[in-house]
Amino acid sequence: MESRELPLKHQLPISKIEKYWKGLEEGKVYKTVCSCGREYYPPQADCSFCMKETEWVEIDGVGEVEAFTVVYSVPKGFEFARSYTIAIARFGNVKVMGWTEKVKVGDKVVLKTGKDESGVWKVYFEVI
Amino acid sequence: MRVGVVGVGCTKFGKRDITLQELAFEAVSEALKDANLTQDQVDLSVVGCVGTRSYELMPAVPVNEYCGFSGKGPIRVEAACATGSAAVYTAYTSIVSGVVDVAVAIGVEKMTEVETSVSLAVGGRAGNYLWEFHQYGTTFPAYYAMHATAHMARYKTTEKQMALCAVKAHRNAKNNPKAHFQREISVEDVLSSRYICYPLKLYDCSPISDGAAAVVLASEKVVKELNLDAIWIDGIGFSSDTSNMTKRDGFVGLKATVDAAKMAYKMAKINPSDLDLACVHDCFTIAEIMAYEDLGFCKKGEGGRFIEEGESDFGGKIPVNTFGGLKAKGHPLAATGIAMVYEVVKQLREEAEKLQVDLKNYKALTHNVGGTGHFCWIFIFSR
Ligand SMILES: CC(C)(COP(=O)(O)OP(=O)(O)OC[C@H]1O[C@@H](n2cnc3c(N)ncnc32)[C@H](O)[C@@H]1OP(=O)(O)O)[C@@H](O)C(=O)NCCC(=O)NCCS
Ligand SMILES: [Zn+2]
Q1: Of the N and C termini of chain A, which has fewer Cβ atoms inside 10 Å?
Q2: A102 part of a folded domain
């Protein structure tokens, strides 16, 4: 027997992190930093430790890949892609997740932003 | 005050065409029978269920009712794949606090009610939805695959070494009637299976399984009064880590495991070398290799060599996952941590039949990870 269908599609509340999403559309990737010295990526408007408001700072320069995988068994919601590569690269004090072409651990990368086929903005790495 | 495990039950894992509560009932009835107790002698029930892949969204009460525990709790617990251990901890602390004398911890999960792509999309939400799944389509295999590429790059760990974990798991599961898979596989089978998330292949992954497990815990006072047969909880360790992978220091181990292990060894006043066996969280083969290192069975980076040299097999330094592991026995999320307690209790009572390990110190460890080191729970038991 089948159950009744329950479609779950949520409204994502992004008012406190709107600058990040606007930034992606302008080709910029932001982290947040607190006067206590902590840096946040993904960015957050509040410092979890000293409870102060953080400031927005653009991430740029060259990053280094620390881990990656190529996803072949694609989850629901990503049917538009046959496979994709996810990597994590370090840029100074923060690490960033992104989609990329062929990479290996230790590769140097720069940041790009873009939209995937389902219209979601994200970070892409370009291997240099 | 000491707390003892006085009864254990575990269903057959695999695709099971019965409801969540019917599944839980199988484990609970076995555990109560094993303890020689009845429902009215139980003061509290704790129901662990992740529940994100099954139709009953608030399952604690239906499970409790079907198992005959209405009125005794339930407390529902969720800690991703470590839910079962969190349920055991909740039952344990309720007894230690003196509020109750006998508590049951139930872990039950139905994972096969949705299709694989939905299961992957749910598992991929086990980190931080907005910054990981929403943008990048992370999946559970993907999280561990990223640890695998980092481990391979740093320590020259190979796909073949990872494959050996799967081969050992399937070889052991063949003799475990409760296991999802009861067939042996070869290194070649693993290496030639399709990539799920590079470098993890089909046979590097635990399957999508249904299952339940239950344990009955009792205070030392009750154990003595009723003359019950108890396996004692000597040590407990727990820790957690960030939801976002990007906020971790590195990807060659799980910090939550290292910290939880330290806490558990200290409480039990033992070293890893005092253990006769261990059940570790091998949801993916790389997870088993990292567990050897993070639990202190070998040095960081030597996990690949540890499996290669048979150190985690029968007769090795420490037999690990003699029950077939999550890899081959199956990994019905909330059932897993409690099923590990079931396996350890059978071993320490010397009732593990073909899978029995030689015991010297009568001490064993369970290691249950939620998410990718998002949670970690460790228990040390003795007879
Ligand atoms: C790896 C995975 C994606 C494979 O699922 P799938 O592509 O739907 O595989 P199928 O169900 O089509 O199985 C194909 C065959 O492989 C077998 N199989 C499936 N998963 C297996 C596994 N993990 N190990 C060994 N054999 C497996 C099936 O029994 C089936 O065999 P059959 O053809 O003889 O019946 C799935 O098992 C998975 O997601 N595992 C990880 C679960 C997880 O993430 N758990 C962590 C907690 S969130
Ligand atoms: Zn601060």
Answers
A1: N
A2: yes
B259 has a pLDDT exceeding 90: yes
Q: Is the pLDDT of residue B307 over 90?
A: yes
Are A45 and A103 in the same domain?
no
Residue B225 predicted with pLDDT over 90: yes
Question: Do A44 and A88 share a domain, yes or no?
Answer: no
Q: Both A72 and A116 in a single domain?
A: yes
Q: Examine residue A4 and state whether it is found in any structural domain, yes or no.
A: no
Q: What is the ipTM of this complex?
A: 0.98
Structurally, at CATH architecture level, domain B3-114+208-226 sits in 3-Layer(aba) Sandwich (3.40)
What is the count of structural domains for chain A? 2
Query: pLDDT digit string (tens) for B15-51?
Result: 999 999 999 999 999 999 999 999 999 999 999 999 9
Cα B124 to Cα A63: distance, rounded to the nearest angstrom: 25
Closest ligand (CA of B282): 1
Query: What confidence tens digit (pLDDT) does each residue in B149-164 have?
Result: 999 999 999 999 999 9
Ligand number with the minimum distance to the CA of B112: 1
Angle at B293 between CA B186 and CA B314, to 5 degrees: 45
Q: Which domain holds residue A27?
A: 14-58
Same domain flag for A49 and A26 = yes
Query: Whole-angstrom distance between the N-terminal and C-terminal Cα of chain A?
Result: 54
pTM above 0.95, yes or no: yes
Question: Best of B114, B174, B206 to mutate for ligand 1, by most ligand atoms within 8 A of CB?
Answer: B206
Residue A25 and residue A2 in contact, taking contact as beta carbons nearer than 8 Å: no
H/E run at residue B10 = strand B3-10
The question of whether B331 is a catalytic residue gets the answer yes
Rounded Cα distance between B213 and B27, Å, is 5
